[in-house]
Every structure is written in C-alpha cells, then in structure tokens.
Fold this protein.
Amino acid sequence: MNDPGVGLNVRVDMPAPPMHGYDVVVGAGALDGLATRVRQAAPAERYALIVPGDIVGLHGARVLSQLRDGGLVVDMLEFAAGEAHKTRAVWASLTDRMLELGLGRDSAVIALGGGVAGDLAGFVAATYMRGIPVVQVPTTLLAMIDAAVGGKTGVDTEAGKNLVGSFHPPRLVIADPLVLRTLSPDELRGGLAEAVKHGAILDADYFAWIAGNAAAILELDAPVLEELVSRSVRIKADVVMEDPLEAGRRAVLNFGHTVAHALELQAGYRLRHGYAVALGMLAEAAAGEGCGVTEGGTMERIAETLHRCELPTSHDIGSVDGLLSIMRLDKKARRTRPRLALLERIGVCARDPAGSWTFEVPEADLTAAVRRALHGGEVV
Amino acid sequence: MNDPGVGLNVRVDMPAPPMHGYDVVVGAGALDGLATRVRQAAPAERYALIVPGDIVGLHGARVLSQLRDGGLVVDMLEFAAGEAHKTRAVWASLTDRMLELGLGRDSAVIALGGGVAGDLAGFVAATYMRGIPVVQVPTTLLAMIDAAVGGKTGVDTEAGKNLVGSFHPPRLVIADPLVLRTLSPDELRGGLAEAVKHGAILDADYFAWIAGNAAAILELDAPVLEELVSRSVRIKADVVMEDPLEAGRRAVLNFGHTVAHALELQAGYRLRHGYAVALGMLAEAAAGEGCGVTEGGTMERIAETLHRCELPTSHDIGSVDGLLSIMRLDKKARRTRPRLALLERIGVCARDPAGSWTFEVPEADLTAAVRRALHGGEVV
C-alpha cells in the first residue's frame, strides 16, 4: 500500500435486497380491518394519513377515526385534489408539515385516494429521511388496479408527467371494491380502460369476461367489481414481480399509453387518462396490424369491448402530424423515436426477434394507424 | 371469486435485488482513466456532469474535456457551491435543466466535488425519471472516505440537514488522492477527523498509523494520502456492505456525530463538520467512560491523536444545557432521547446486551461527559 500508484479497488456488494414483498388485499369490506393490517405490515410509532381534500369527508374522516380506534397514532394531512397539485411544491409542503409534526424515521405514510394521492404520498414516503414505509389505500378503480401496485411514485413537472420520482414499493395495498360505489360513472369508466388493457395484453379470458360483464360493472354490482379488481391486480402484480424496475417486460403495461400520453398532452390534460388509453389502444393495435406484428381484426375486437364499456372509440385529433411530433418529443423515449408495446393478438403481447417488448414503428405506419383508428370514428 | 367478501390476497414478491454492487477505485492518477471506467460501469447515451461553481476551474473543465475526449456525450451543470445550496430548490433546478437538455432515462449523472455535490447530484440521479445511475467523483478527503461510499443522497431543509433524500448507491466511485493536494489545510483536517473515527471504531492499527503519520498527511505526501484514503474506504465499505440501509450496525459510523450535529446546529453551521466530529468523539468517548461502556483512558488517546492531526480538542460551548436540549430535539432520534454509538475501546465499538449498536445515555452522564470533554480544554 506504500507504493505510489498501487491504490485499491474495493468492491462494495449489497447482500440484502432492500425491496421487500407486500400483500395486495382485495375484498369487499377490507377497509374495516385497516388498522390491524397496517400495524402488522408497517409497524410505526406514528403515521401520516395523506388525503386529497375532496375525499376527506367521504373517506378520510372515517379512515382516520378507524385507525385511531385501532390504537394507531395518526395525523391527517390534506392536500388540494387534482393532477395539477401532483407537484414538487406540494410534495415539499407535505414533507415540511410532517417535519413540523416531529415525525421521525420510525413513522410511516398511509396514502388514501386516487392515483395522484398514491403517487404523491408515495414520493413523500420515498424521500422522507431517506425513505419510510408507505401503505397504499386506493379509492378509485384506476388506482386499485394500476398505480397502487408496483411501487412507482412521483410528481409532474412543467416538462411532463411523472418525470421526478422513485421506485418505492408499498408495504401493503388495501383495495376495497365497496369504495368504488362512490365513484362517478366517468371515473369508473376511466379505470375500466386499464382493465381492458390487462385483458388485451395478457389474458384473453379476462378480456372476454369484461365484455360480457360490462353492464354489471357499470351498474356497480359488488361481486362483479370484486372480481374485476382481483383479476386486474393479479395481472399487474405478475408483471411487476417479473420486472420490478421496468427494465424490460414491464413495458407491456404501456400498451396504448404512448399514443395516450400524446393525446393527453395535445388536449392540455382535459382528456381523461382512461379515455386516452382507450383511444391509444385502438391506435396501437392498428399500428401493430399495419406492420404485421398484430393479428388482423384485433383493433376491431378492442373497439367492440370499449363500446360495451361505454368508452370512446373515436376522437377528433385535429392534426395527425401534430400528434406525431408530440410523440417524437416524448421525454422518456429513447433518442427521439417512440417505441410501442404491441399485441401479437388479444391476450398475448408481442416480442421482437431481439427479445425486446417494444417496437420501433415506422412513422408512416404510425400515421396511417392513427388515421385509421381515430379519425372520423369509422372503427365502430 | 364470485362470492362477495371472498376477495383476493396477492403477494407481490420482489425477486431481483435492485441494489447492485459497485467498485470504489482509489489511486493516485485514477482520474486519468475516468472516461473508460465510467463507460464500463455506467454506460449511458448522455451524461450530466454536476459540479459546484468553485471547482469548475480547478477540476470541472479538465474532467469535462477528458470525458468528451473519451467519446462520452456530456453536459456540465454548475451549481453555487456550499452547504447553503444543498436544497430542494437547487435539486429542482438541476433536474429542470436536465429535462430542458432532453436527457432521457438512458442518461447518467457524474457528481464531481465534495460532500455537497455528491449528496445533491446523487439525489438528482435518484429521482430523475425514477432513478438513473450516478458515478461519484469526490474531490475532498471527507467526501472520498465518507459521503461518496454508501449510497446516501439528499438535501437539507429548514428543519435540519439531510432530512429529504434516498438511498441510491453509485455505480462507481473514483477517488484520486492526487486531487487532495489542492485542498486547504482546513479542508484536509476536516476529512482527517472522519479517518480518526474509522480507526477509533474498527481498527486500532489504523488509529495508531494515523497518529504516527499525521505530519506526513498534513504535508500532503502522496503515498501516505493514498494509504489513508484506501484504509478508510475499506472500513466504510465493510460497514456499508453489512448494513446497506442503516438498519443496525451502520450506526457505529455515527460515533461522535450525535454531539457533533448538536454543536454544528448550536454554531449555526459556522463550525466545520470535521471539527465538530473531533469534539463529538471526545464527548461521546467521555460519555462511554462515564457509564462504564468504554475503557478508561480512551478519550485521552483520542485527544492525543486529534492533537497530532491539528484538530481541536476543546471548544467554548457556552451552555451545556442548551446543547443537550438541541440533542433532545434531533429529528432523527427515536422518540426524544438521543442514542449514541459508543466505543468499547479504541478499534472496537460497543454493543449493548440486547444487540443494539447504540446506547441511551442518561442525561446526567451526558452532561458530565460534555463538561469533562469540551469545557475549558482540560483534556489535552
């Protein structure tokens, strides 16, 4: 060691996997057992219950007293509801309020609400004193079957959605389908588009089941909602377990989403996410058919199911060129060419010969596909 | 699945450990091979080189052209130097500049500078699009042997230091002791206090070696600096590997730091961190002796070594009660009683009968220890 220039090369290995497994509990009435389950899965000296203002009356107060009755020490922190508040400023202010309350490293966060609450409160937990546990309690269909499972947390910036965040898996997810009966029809349909996607990419039986039960779902039939959430959660969980950090296969969950994000951006986020996903699936199915990856007729089958779910199947996109240039600017795209997750057929996602779960679709094919799928509503 | 109330309990297991191992390369001249090593350990389409303004001239420009000469696509991002700028605002602004430059998920961060640069740029990387790789290139002794190894990243808030952050291990650490020859004597001594701590907690031989080589270290003798950095990095890496997320044993690295943090806060951060650690080790050694955990004479041996290193061994703390009330308010303390990492003797840290690496020291003993160790300078 005393010879100059010899130095040292230390290998720092990380023996303990810091990501842990967690339970996703789906059940009508599951919320009633919340305190006991939270205490078991995320024991902590104190809890911050983070809730958007618009559901404090509907769910927040009830959950707060139930947790306190169960012996937990809980402070409820409200934030202004809506995607517009999923920002670094709100994240910082929630963090500061927890610091003022004196919550230490032995605290945990409980995120109650839709996808915004889960992403935002999850990111607060991910970065509070370098990470404290979070329990996700989703109250919308979209959050139950998508955002709450998988560990993605984050906030939006001026430049785009979810550009700042962490992977921070929850210690527990509690999804109580009875809560869905408080949703507006629009909110329910928005979530349903993601369920259709789960069937389309990985489970043809489930895809058919949704089409056959669309009316019961829209009528908020409790056992049917429970089956819907359970089957979607199972699919999402399987994909996440195989690829927790989105290194490869998890990309299949993006089916429909590349076009959907461009549609949302083009509409200044006045288009509901689930509706954009419905339209995006049509366009990406058409793109897959156009370049010979996807079985012919797939787009029409998706359109049929979306129609039964009362989801949109056509859209006035204005300029197709404008939409494509938004996709070229996607901040997360490799270089500047968008890559799409495509289907082989309903229930089976496609993999390219090199093993990738995404495809680079030639721009001309993409333009033709968007025209065919969305322009003028000729698909239904 | 159709019976109401049956529901589902999905276990989401995480098979792939998302934390990876990494190399810490210590060597005189190691910086010259930076481009090749970065390309191997953190291959990326583009790189953000994050550098505090005060070393852009000294190191930043040279490293930038070297990386570019090596064929990497690099943008250099400056931020205003100093702990006062280790904030969420600067983190957000660095993130936004990377977004404006169009850096995608296939980018990586290179953090060049002292502990502030490493913590801040590391946190930018940890949260950029849910995490991109970071390479740590520390330029101070303190950063080389402490902050750069172990994966802690974060920023300060009004409420205290490092309260917001993540564990985000680097892909590579390059420590070139030749860089230390540009440090001021004060900066070098500040880092040296952490090296003394490494010897004190885990390696009596190293502790004695530092005392014996203090003059050569302070004269910036290259081979001696290389041995210093190598031995400290080895110790830090061993502790981090055993306890990557600071769940237990890693607490031994906090020896001296509970009192040190209180001293820094009391001085409004006008006291250099390394100097506070030097004083903190004396006080905590005295506390350990006072409650019978630490071998008698340990505090004096530490004082002797600090003296040879030209580090402070006495301090006008004003009110001891004031210092203790700051310690009671420590945001990271369990409940409100500070727990200290204590020595058994030089080179061996103490473990309590229950297996914990920290001890709750009665307040009266702590008061007496601070008085004995720091008041009036009677220890040297």
Observations:
- Chain B has a mean pLDDT of 91.
- Chain B touches chain A through 84 residues (CB under 8 Å).
- The first strand of chain B starts at residue 8 and ends at 12.
- The two ends of chain B are 76 Å apart (CA to CA).
